[in-house]
């Protein structure tokens, strides 16, 4: 049985920590977004909800990890994650915040799930189609 190097395991755990911490980024910026662009509480909560909807939509990236380069999926997810944070942080309207939040959810799922599927493959925890099994859980 192959063992994952500690650096790989640490990287995957750091990615999961980053993913879980994103739940606090947007609520943490609410006060400044409210002051700058006049977001209401309803608009803020719908933008938080857009992250979850984006995460569900990003499940396609998890399944794609069975057929495409996991490294590329994870890298594109990381770039999308960073880009969406910039979009939300520099948003001038509610629509931009909403789109940035949705992309944040999609990108975070792509980044995290592709890296987790790659680690599971490296550890030899099962046969093929690990992304489809991961998406089903």
Can you give a write-up of this model?
The protein is mainly α. The chain is built from 7 helices and no strands.
Average pLDDT confidence is 81
Number of E-state strands: 0
Order of helices and strands: HHHHHHH
Strand-pairing-aware structural class: mainly alpha
| Estimated helix fraction | over 70%
Name the shape in a single word.
Answer: elongated
Intertermini distance = 24 Å
Tell me the Rg in angstroms.
Answer: 16 Å
Protein topology:
Elements: H1 6-28, H2 30-37, H3 41-57, H4 59-64, H5 70-89, H6 94-123, H7 130-136
Helix pairs in contact: 1-6, 3-6, 5-6, 6-7
Short description:
This protein is an all-alpha fold. Helix content is 81%, strand content 0%. The chain has 7 helices and no strands.
